[in-house]
Design goal:
The protein has 7 helices and 11 strands. With 285 residues, the chain is of the alpha/beta class.
């Protein structure tokens, strides 16, 4: 087994181990990253598509179903998928009152899972009493940095999307968050006013080639997860090479009004350095 395959196995196992803790931390309504950064961005990217009659959406790496519920609440018929069986269990529990959501196991690193999905695009895809031609929306929220290889997903997208459908992804920012960086905090007192001044910055030591690393998403989680860094040209290039076209790009960030005074190092305190990156793509043909 290759090193990447070993890391993928470890990554998937970590999400099974962390599923209950993650579900408790994110909850039904999401955390501040969802409420302040992700959801507003997704609303801007997807409002037109979700307004379509009988919108069909595929929510990959659904976790506890947060995005699946958000899509369904806006009228979409949703296929919620994850490679972690335990995560899918939590999603089913959280989405039990959403009849417009069905579930499917999809490991996005396995081409055969997408082949089966493409083959099922029809009357049996979401157990709906009518056929569909593809998805209006394919969404993967805050997961690309957790995936060992993106090629199977990129290869499948042109066949999964309708001609006017869109693929939207959010992830930790490849420059300011998932790269090899340090958070620098300079605390000084203004000699004239006596007021404390905090100056924050980040030192980026590596960007082009950063090996997979282990870290945490929520403080206190049972096991560490694996992060896969990709520079932006590589991240987007995987999809561009398969005929996708970049349609939108945002870098959501917190504002200075949202500082956490009790945690000087908190991500929310670095208002000038975006925590996330989000992009939207469509078929180029």
């Amino acid at each position: 087994m290759s090193a990447i395959a070993d890391l993928h196995t470890e990554a998937l196992a970590s999400w099974n181990d962390n599923a209950d803790y993650w579900d408790d931390g994110i909850g039904h309504e999401g955390n501040k990253y969802w409420k302040r950064l992700q959801e507003p961005c997704l609303s801007r990217f997807l409002s037109k598509h979700l307004a379509k009659h009988d919108c069909r959406a595929l929510d990959l790496a659904t976790g506890n179903g947060l995005c699946a519920r958000w899509l369904a609440d806006r009228g979409a018929f949703v296929t919620a998928a994850d490679g972690s069986d335990r995560m899918l269990e939590k999603a089913r529990e959280r989405c039990s009152n959403n009849p417009g959501i069905t579930f499917r196991t999809i490991d996005v690193t396995k081409a055969e899972h997408f082949e089966a999905l493409v083959a099922d695009i029809g009357g049996e895809l979401t157990s709906l009493p009518f056929e569909i031609e593809g998805f209006d929306v394919v969404l993967i929220n805050m997961a690309l940095m957790d995936i060992a290889t993106l090629e199977p997903l990129a290869a499948a997208l042109p066949r999964l999307l309708k001609s006017d459908g869109v693929f939207v992804a959010t992830l930790l920012h490849p420059v300011f968050f998932t790269s090899d960086h340090s958070r620098l905090i300079d605390v000084r007192t203004d000699p004239e006013t006596g007021e404390r001044e905090v100056i924050r910055s980040k030192a980026i030591r590596k960007y082009m080639e950063v090996p997979p690393t282990r870290g945490i998403a929520l403080p206190g989680q049972p096991v560490k997860q694996v992060y896969f860094h990709r520079p932006i040209h590589e991240l987007l290039g995987v999809f561009l090479k398969k005929g996708m076209v970049l349609d939108g790009l945002e870098e959501p960030t917190f504002t200075s009004e949202e500082e956490e005074n009790d945690r000087l190092e908190a991500t929310a305190n670095f208002a000038q350095l975006p925590a996330l990156m989000a992009f939207r793509m469509r078929r180029g043909f």
